[in-house]
Amino acid sequence: MLHHLFAKFALGANSNLLKAIYEHDRAMLLPAIPSPDFITPVNYIGHLGDPKYYQSYYAFFASRLQEKGVSKTLEEYIYSRKANYDDQHGNNQPKMFSRFLGGLYHPMIHLGYGLEFGVVGVVAGALAEMAVHETHISPLIPASSWDDEGLLGEISLASRMTSLSLGHTAPELNDVSPAPSSRTEEISLFNILAMIQRDESMTTQAVGITEITRTSHYEVVDKLQGALLKYATMWTLNIAQGTADDREVERKIEEFAFVVTLMYGVGGWRTNEERPFRADFALMHLVTSSLFFPAIVAYFPPHAIRLLFRSYLCTALALWITKQKPALRIKEFMKSTSISPQDPNAALKLSHKPVKDTLTPETVTPNPWLAIVPSVLEHPDDHLCKIMRSLMHWANLFGSRPAGYWAGGKAKLEGIEALDGTLFLRVAGLTMGELGWAKEGQDVGEWDHSLPPGIPARVHAARFGQSH
């Protein structure tokens, strides 16, 4: 419910709509369960991963935040070495960062909302949610991840990471940095994606997973951890120890915005099936979580930003591989999908005659987002507004990127030369078509929880995590 309210508030929901969301969603709320015991600095490690202790963890982190402030609390309990690997804990390592990125990134998303809206209670809730998550992805975040952490120093991005922040416009009005396509010596996320797409050893079949189930994602993590970590270190990430160039951080966030949208959007597009788009529930969370990079990195020092980016990349690639690396037919996608998505009743809006001096009388909605947002606001699905907010924000920042902007590098992703900033709007239109223009009378659709096609399965509705 909280994410639903925040997302639609940010999209412009009025008080009546927010009340309606509360009434709609409260039926799904579970009763608060008192924890068996208090959580203290002495025993907080002992109950990690146990949902029964959520209330006590919430109280514990709320007190820590009040005492230490947000920045110090995040350092101590999320990204410090001690919060993850500490000799005194033996085999019972806390591994908080793997909990932070677990559960389809929900602790990360929750923290993002808390930081974006400045609600310390939500930050406490994010830390408590992190504490009760499991550590299934910990092989992708080994203790060696902290070997090059360097000096913590002061957090220098908090006052400068504004050009990608929510509510701001395109970041590069005065930027004269060369386009990524001209930086041929660098390895981008697109290059990494191309290499893994062609690497036959990076498949579930290659590591002996013949039946895809709910736990297959964790099997991929276990069996491909070495290769995933190797690919992640190949990614050019020029964030030095102790300092961080905010433009480099912004460029890497932009790479993530495009790549996760490719995974979900282009990967979900079909031409030869009854359903033209498969709105994959798990891959959708890559897009929704990417929205909060700007808010989170503003509180992270350079070594923690590197840790976040490389760890997130590993988990995203593992999820994509588990989904059988859906084909990325970028050139065909850019040719065949619409940059003017319309609701089913759009033609009815032209039933009246525009006045003489109307500039484009034949156009129903000159700005497609002005058609999408009102429908999203009234839609009952709580994930639709979150992904649309992400897509709209990235379109606002990067929608003017020309074709060929990302075409550099030696290992080119097939069709990358056709990719431009309209990607986000195209994917938004396909998602609306699948989830339904409910306000306009179209049936409400559903997210795709199915397994990849052509793979035998003992569980036909596998979910890689749970909705929160």
TrEMBL record:
The keyword Oxidoreductase applies. Pfam families: Questin_oxidase. GO terms for molecular function: oxidoreductase activity. Keywords: Oxidoreductase. InterPro entries: Questin_oxidase-like. It comes from the Eukaryota. This is Uncharacterized protein.
